[in-house]
Amino acid sequence: MSKKFPLKASVWIFDLDDTLHNASAHIFPYINRAMTHYIMQELGLEEVPANQLRQHYWRLYGATLKGLMRHHGTDPHHFLHQTHAYMDLPAMVIEARGLRQCLQQLQGRKVVFTNAPTQYALRVLDLLGIRTIFETVFSVEFTHFHPKPAVRGFKQILKNLRVRPDHCIMVEDSLPALMTAKRLGMKTVYVTPTLQKPSYVDARISSVLALPRVHLSHSY
Fold it and tell me: How do residues 43-53 score in pLDDT, each as one tens digit?
């Protein structure tokens, strides 16, 4: 027999960009250009190979920064400042109507886990009007620059929260990050406009606004 139960969690762990807001429209193109320019300046590369290297490290490590630190000794604080500090975020952040009310319907603690730097994340949450919804923000600095999907960052967060992974729900637009969350024992919600739903995804939604209506099927 199959029954459906609403999603429940002691802790909701939310990604930020392209999960709580649409970063692909304006923010990601800006950051991608800024990272490519940074690589050009610091490594002395032309634009095309610099852009290829940026994408290669992003695919390999989940974040361009990790590849630059590992292979080129890049100062992470300088990199994050140069690639995030000069954005006109009020003109770039796209707020989904009803987002705050949606999040308030979810019972349990709520935190943000992002590969972005702290100050950027806090500015975006302020512009979205939802910063006070969250207990804390776990940024790339908190994980000592071990970004998602690396398991090390996840374990640091679970230790800080003093919570078991099976008491958490990860809400995220990145499949590699969801795979790590699932391997640790979390429930997983994939935020995507596509219909793809891998086995390690417990629920797929096209928008975070649908989260209060999500149910999981369990068979007995």
Answer: 999 999 999 99
